[in-house]
Amino acid sequence: MAQNASMEEFEALLNESFEMDTPDEGTVVKGKVIAIEAGQAIIDVGYKMEGRVELKEFANPGEQPDISVGDEVEVFLRAAENARGEAVISREMARREEAWDRLEKAYADDARVEGAIFGRVKGGFTVDLGGAVAFLPGSQVDVRPVRDAGPLMGLKQPFQILKMDRRRGNIVVSRRAILEESRAEQRAEVIGNLTEGQAVDGVVKNITEYGAFVDLGGVDGLLHVTDMAWRRVNHPSEILSIGETVKVQVIKINKETHRISLGMKQLQEDPWNLVAAKYPLESVHTGRVTNITDYGAFVELEPGVEGLVHVSEMSWTKKNVHPGKIVSTSQEVEVKVLEIDQAKRRVSLGLKQTMRNPWEVFSETHPEGTVVEGEVKNITEFGLFVGLPGDIDGMVHLSDLSWDERGEDAIQNYRKGDIVKAVVSEVDTDKERISLSIKGVDGDKFADAVGGVKRGSVITVTVTAIEDGGIEVEYEGMKSFIRRSDLSRDRSEQRPERFTVGDHVDVRVTNVDSKSRRLGLSIKAREIAEEKEAVEQYGSSDSGASLGDILGAALKGDN
């Protein structure tokens, strides 16, 4: 009975020993290194259980394994026994389980973790976080793109866990978040020591189209292109280069966004303070064309002082052309100061004002009545435009083309490019107009012919044609027509056929029409006038003398 009791006790103690001390598979157990051979560490995990672990599992990436006989280590028991009767254990899996516990706590506390970049993968890098491998995206390596990550490899440094999933074994970390946080602290410290208006030294870090970023010792400030110099700067690279040390003034500090605006020109004297004294109105100066636009050209009078020559002030004659066809960039030109707006920092300049008004010059050199010669530049429905000296045009109206033809007919005789002569009839310098007359070149034949003829004058004309309605006559080369009813006082004598071509006939002028260039003539009017004169000279209507007696006496007196 005693022997049976002792056997039962031994069996119970043995079972209890197995239940209490034998570790469960899939857990982390402690063991002791009892030997190192063939690149492996042999570890005793208790109860006659031994396992083998590759030495590389005891080394951090890029380092030699740190393990020796007698060391106590934690390993992961994957299986209690394999085909060779050995325990299947892993140091790496133990480290991973330990690391995951530690990382989950750090992630929950939003704390930093230490790790080392040890490999490059698509889209980023791999990081060892003390047993757990995390992914570091390329965009999270630094605050700026990193071209060479070599110096960062194997270097222990802090990281921020952005995302982790233990079930899937995914961890995403960021180095950039740590740098930005440190940078923000540094920026706050530097900005706290800066004041608006303070002059400081900085190093040009980057140049863009709109300005340059200057490092002020841990914090960057923006130096806008408009604050680099008082003069126009087309691109910051004209006056700055990367790595250059420059002195700048702090213009504005935004405490909330930590943005700093800088200026260089503010440390120089403003040239506009002396503009009014150096460039009085109507004064002429030499400047350099710096920029050309559709509406004019900018001319630099001195560094920092520019004026605008509006397109309307560029040329007396070229009205509808682009300013680029009159001046070119970098060209030196003479300009006149037309207006200064100190408040708006604007100077209005004139280019054409430095040259004489060509219409005034023409008026002086070609007074009215002067004959000029020029090329027909354009033909319109109301006349011709003729090119004149000084690159200006004069206009010949339809009514000034010919004495004898209608303007609409006379203009058909001209073509663009024809060289014509004309006389200056009027110059209006204010309206920039010159009136010309082609028909006036040879003078006014009508005016010359009838210069001494007035209404009521008796002149002698020559018959040039006989027609049913009257006769055509000529006086000093000017043609006129006498109607049948004006051929005689006596109706029976109002017959055109009683005249012969070549006859000389005395007629009375009834009208002088300069506009239509016609003389109104009448034989009948002459006879009535003569009769009236005879009555007044030789008798009256109540003297008892007959008209025949009066006319007879008048003829006798003439004899």
Topology:
Elements: H1 2-21, E1 27-37, E2 40-46, E3 49-54, E4 72-79, E5 88-90, H2 91-108, E6 112-121, E7 124-128, E8 133-137, E9 156-165, E10 170-174, H3 176-192, E11 199-207, E12 211-215, E13 220-224, E14 245-254, E15 259-263, H4 275-278, E16 284-293, E17 296-302, E18 305-310, E19 332-341, E20 346-350, H5 358-365, E21 371-380, E22 383-388, E23 392-397, H6 407-410, E24 419-428, E25 433-437, H7 445-449, E26 458-467, E27 470-475, E28 478-483, E29 504-513, E30 518-522, H8 523-538, H9 547-558
Parallel strand pairs: 13-15, 18-20, 23-25
Antiparallel strand pairs: 1-2, 1-4, 2-3, 4-5, 6-7, 6-9, 7-8, 9-10, 11-12, 11-14, 12-13, 14-15, 16-17, 16-19, 17-18, 19-20, 21-22, 21-24, 22-23, 24-25, 26-27, 26-29, 27-28, 29-30
Helix pairs in contact: 8-9
What does it look like?
- By secondary structure, this protein is an alpha+beta fold.
- It has 6 domains: 72 residues, Nucleic acid-binding proteins (OB fold (Dihydrolipoamide Acetyltransferase, E2P), Beta Barrel); 71 residues, OB fold (Dihydrolipoamide Acetyltransferase, E2P), CATH 2.40.50.140; 74 residues, Nucleic acid-binding proteins (OB fold (Dihydrolipoamide Acetyltransferase, E2P), Beta Barrel), CATH 2.40.50.140; 82 residues, Nucleic acid-binding proteins (OB fold (Dihydrolipoamide Acetyltransferase, E2P)); 80 residues, Nucleic acid-binding proteins (OB fold (Dihydrolipoamide Acetyltransferase, E2P)); 90 residues, Nucleic acid-binding proteins (OB fold (Dihydrolipoamide Acetyltransferase, E2P), Beta Barrel).
- The protein is built from 9 helices and 30 strands.
- It has a 5-stranded antiparallel β-sheet. A 5-stranded antiparallel β-sheet has the order 8-7-6-9-10. Strands 11-12-13-15-14 form a 5-stranded mixed beta barrel.
- Strand 2 and strand 3 form a beta hairpin.
- The radius of gyration is 58 Å and the shape is rod-shaped.
- The mean pLDDT is 81.
- This is 30S ribosomal protein S1.
